[in-house]
Amino acid sequence: MFLQLPHTPQALAQEQHRKLVELLDGSLSLLDVCGTAKDALQKTKECTQELQSILCRRRGTECLANEVRKYFTSRKAARKAICKALKNLKHMENKLASSSFSKDGETGAVISTLKQVEAVTISVLESMLTFISGPEAELKSSRWSLISKLMHQKRVMCEEAEQKTIAFLH
């Protein structure tokens, strides 16, 4: 009887439309999170490459110190952006979990599938961003430990090259 009323199908269609719009908004939010994470990682990558370049050219310590500062500033900004993205993902996850969708009909099945895809995407992004941001212990370690490791690796590589040269000359 209820389904035979003239405005019932229209009301049901509007409700399904609202749910689809909600899911599409969630997808756009996921794209925003991905863009934010990509930008932060790109900036960190650029600073890392500049730091490696300075280490290879062995410029003065002042130039090295400036590049190290820029690197750590970019890492801090990246971590901040990633933390913000993780909060947004958690908010989206809670919103998705609290929303109710019916699985009635073909549209309901599509909405249900989109909801599942969004939930999986949120989970994957959370895992990836958590991995990229690194453990808290790394945040508190000495900042110069990275530089000393890089310098040690370069020294080892130079010593190996020197030994090969000596072996070649004899």
TrEMBL record:
Pfam family, one: BPS1
Entries under InterPro entries matching the protein: BPS1_pln
GO biological process terms on file: root development; shoot system development
Protein name: Eukaryotic translation initiation factor 3 subunit A
Keywords assigned: Initiation factor, Protein biosynthesis
Entry keyword annotation includes Protein biosynthesis: yes
GO molecular function: translation initiation factor activity
